[in-house]
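Q: My collaborator sent me two sequences in one message, no labels, and asked for predicted structures for both. Can we handle them in order? The first one she listed is below.
A: Yes, handling them in the order given. First sequence, followed by its structure tokens:
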Amino acid sequence: MEKLTLSQIASAVGGCCQSGKEVLAVCTDTRKIEPGSLFIAIKGERFDGHDFIAQAFEKGAVGAIADHPVAGFENIIVVADTRRALLDLARYYRGLFSVFTVGVTGSVGKTSTKEMIYSILSQRGKTLKTEGNFNNEIGMPMTMFRLSHEYKNGVFEMGMSNFGEIRDLTHVCRPNVGVITNIGVSHIETLGSRENILKAKMEITEAMAPDAPLILNMDDSMLKEVSHLTDQPVMYFGIDSPADVTATDIRTENGCTLFCVRYYGQSIEAMVPAIGRHNVYNALAGFCVGLVADMEPEEIVNGMRLYKNAAMRQNIVQENGVTVIADCYNASPDSMRAAIDVLMQTACSGKRWCVFGDMLELGKISEEAHIEVGREVGRSRADGLICIGELARGIKRGAMMVGMKHVYHFTDLALAAQFIAKTVNPGDAVIYKASRGIHLEQVIARVSEEWKK
């Protein structure tokens, strides 16, 4: 972070403080406070940051933002809402820099698409990106404070669970380009319909300049009509449908995906070091961003080759002679289909196994969504299916509906791990996929321990 004074910060958030003391970092967690920090007291469901203001000053904070005065401490900037103050300050800070920024949202694939765009834009200069799951009203603004004049680009993932959240984040980011990966059913429990999910995602345009392009997936049934619903210039990518940027001749070799990118009457060969159709979509979205950023096509495809998966997303390792694909950060019907696709494209001499767990936040469509995932596993060439969790009973049921034979179900993670360790053999391939709340990574770790015995 580049230095700000407390008086600058107070002006940015609508508070009052005349101190010229310099702030070297912004922090919402006293465990990370360093001398020269500004502490913002955030109220959460299980904590209240105001209880830690004294501790923040003891550890070297030079000021704090709070929703009430705190006796015994100077340089407390009082605001009505500290969460809003965090967003306001991040928006002010963003305005200090001339940087090419990309906002990425969508129901599925936000993080992997962000990582792809990061890899591509890094070819033209130092690029900032949101890390991990720092894509919400706290995490994304905190990422913005890492910006400095050394950066040429920024790629910011925007998550949401309700209306208004993308609006807040896009006003912080002010994207030069907006990317929407797809419109699925994640968060349908809250928003009620895909139409409402699209409406919430389209909030990304509210802080974009009139000439800033919106990059969309033409193969998505909801997004293909967006060009008629917005005044933003739209650039489409796709595989099955005619689009501005498309992929043809898709093939898998040695754990990589090769394809031809066709764009505006031209073409170039490309490769990403990952498998699955969804990774081709990510690459196409990144190619579009590269074009908008005036990059040469050769630069763009070179960036694709350097792409790395984020943690817990399609991490492929060999263990005990088994190809283990860990993709258990989150799950939805769309990402489950992508996982099946990855498994089917994974070379192995033995059997292919799906270990699928509960998909959360699907509301009234949850039961049918789980059943349909089971049907799709059953219709694929997978040899076996291991379901984990209460909702995953629906996945088992769906697979059995279409005649799949080797289908198993567990609610106990330890028992599931023991079964997998005994059943999956050298030469096999297994993919793990579930919503983060199921903690499927614990099953993977326990299976590894069993294999080492």
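Q: And the one she listed second?
A: Here it is, processed independently of the first:
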Amino acid sequence: MYIKRNISWNIILRFAWKNLIFFSLWAATVFSAYYFLGWKHIDIPFQPLSVIGIAVAFYIGFKNSQSYDRFWEGRKIWGGIVNYSRTWANNVLALVQDDKETQRILIYRHIAWINALRIQLRQPSSFSIKENKSVEKLFDRHGERNPVCSRLDKYLSPEEDQDLENRKNVATHLVKNQAQHLKKLLAEEKITEFDKQIFHNNLEELYNLQGKCERIKNTPFPRQYAYFSTVFTWIFVLLLPFGLLSVFESEIVELNSITQQELFLALMIPFSVLISWIFTTMEKVGSNSEDPFEGRINDVPMTALCRTIEIDLLDMLDEKNLPPKIQPQDNILY
């Protein structure tokens, strides 16, 4: 998640430099064909092009609205994970009394669960977005998109950690292990049946939150909206220089100097680049918000949220060596 109020031009150019070069070359090619080669027939009326632009803007607006809904739902789900994590720790400390080791195991296992869930959600899928090399290098340098499951052994016993290595869904088995541990505590009369029901209600909610995350992760944004949004945007930006020729040509007659006419007509190049960049950027914003768990610039900061939960729960255990808060990298909080 980008946290600075204004997006730096370094980030903007990482995403846009290829398109800016292409738009400049395309507009210059159309201008050269029209002006130097004398292909006066290639200009098109701007009125139908403006209708296309309005339609594309509405379509992009719909896509961006739905993409933002996916991101915001993901953020609300992780807000629920934060809240129920604190509830779990509070229940453990209040209901499992006079057994510090059991309290530590149950809370440590929960910390392992949130990190396992984060790691599972960060794994790339077949429909994950691919950026240009300069953007990918930035994310690779930060190293947060596909982290290895390296912190779980710190919070689990060697036997439990070994058992989880071959599991398809580690987070699911960690919640199952919590339930099995509660069953053992009930048999040992360390908790009551009523206590066990309270714990199971908590575990049920954790499963619900995990399932909601997996629903967003495993269900791609409807491709008919995502794909045709891109197609329509590029149809518009490719036709744009031809329409701007018509607009600027109609204003030339008011200029007396030939040099002024040439310079005025050449203005269609920067204006074409600017309008094309605006439309493709709006389309790109929607694409980058489709999948909120990929560990990219606009995604839910799961690493920071996991660390917040970790700090809170360890502090509730009265541990002293608390881990530091996650700091943003290049103004990106992961």
